[in-house]
Amino acid sequence: MAHIGLIGLGVMGQNLVRNMARHGFQVAIYNRTRAKTEAFAHEHPDPNIVPTYTLDEFVAQLERPRRVMLMVKAGAPVDAVVEQVRPLLEPGDIIVDGGNSHFTDTERRQRALEPHGIHFLGVGISGGEEGALWGPSIMPGGPREAYDAVAPIFEAIAAKAEDGEPCVTYLGPGGAGHYVKMVHNGIEYAVMQAIAEVYDLLRRVGGLQVSDLAAVFEEWNRAELASFLMEITAHILRVKDPESGDPLVERILDKAGQKGTGKWTSQNAFDVGIPVPSITAAVEARIISAFKEERVRAAQLLPGPVPEAQGQNRLQLIEEGREALFADMVVAYAQGMALLRGAAAEYGYTYHLADVAKIWRAGCIIRAALLEDIRRAFAEAPDLPNLLLADTFRQALGERQQGWREALVAGLTNGVPMPVTAASLAYYDSYRRERLPANLIQAQRDYFGAHTYERVDKPGTFHTEWHQL
Ligand code: 6PG
Q1: Is the entire prediction scored with pTM above 0.90?
Q2: Are 21 and 60 members of one domain?
């Protein structure tokens, strides 16, 4: 009998099946279109891969409690498949949604399935196609007992960090798993945009050729910036367009797409009341990029500095770019972690931030050398209100302060937009300011709406008849 069944043979689904089969698990597979199942089974003849062509046949292959994993598109397709498979299941069986579902959809599905005795796990899976095949980072949430029933499979197929630990752990009830995956993607957006900003700055103001930049990023990837996103960026910069011989990246239309997980992070952060300005800036940078035609017109109409390679101080600018990128990365993780802490309190999630950092150390898109330091910071001080306050990061940002600010100044002076860098530095400066100008905001609110204010020199609530003064 099959240990688990998987529905949805897109690339992610196929690669997860191959990963499970390689680890000795027997997997029943089903896909809406028969041809896809046939083609996959034909390409990968393996006694551990059991093709089925009806849902009845599929369910009949599964040992109990039945474990049914869905790898279908988030949204309506998940509801449709759940609807089809549910009547074939029995109390105690488990459905696992491995897609990028919104955590509130996951919680709705859990509530709907509970009366039938069917457990529903919302599981974030990161690492793209390669990760799915060779070891993703897995972020599961839902009923604990259901997780325990799939844990041996997940632990076997997950990426292993340098210390050998699998990149999976139970994150808590409800939509905790999909929530953590959503925040992972928010951080992913901020880090990607921060890298793009430094690429832009060094290219336009530093005058670096793309191949020089590839060498710079390769070097950075060997030290404290070591991360999957740096690694692929350095590689991307090396790839030439076969037609023109130019760097392929320069031939790619500058309109960024998005499927929504970064946007969800910002939207939910507003609800939870935790600032994530770097993530929001990254989402908005993608949105503004999509207005290509309007930007082309505005480029002719709006005055301002045109980025121009300066040539001088190139080495210094490169160093400043490196420091800015490191600081931006730390701030992106700090905001994501602060949001996870806020959400745990709001929704009753039980994950520890050290464990989240731990399972992000390998397999996922935001894996980075930095994550071991982040894990350690939260392991040593589980109640740390913000990552920026951890000794390591306090010191690291202190040392990179000057370069961080100078890189942003270079962008501002030359008309190179650096929205994530600007938002990250403003976040840092706001967080470290004892006194912010919110006193004036309170006065304005009290002026036009009698919203009252508190004072710094005595307790109580006050209102002033401003008009009469
Ligand atoms: C991952 C990725 C993955 C994905 C998203 C992001 O962790 O493996 O985050 O889930 O690439 O689809 O996509 P968008 O950039 O299209 O929003």
Answers
A1: yes
A2: yes
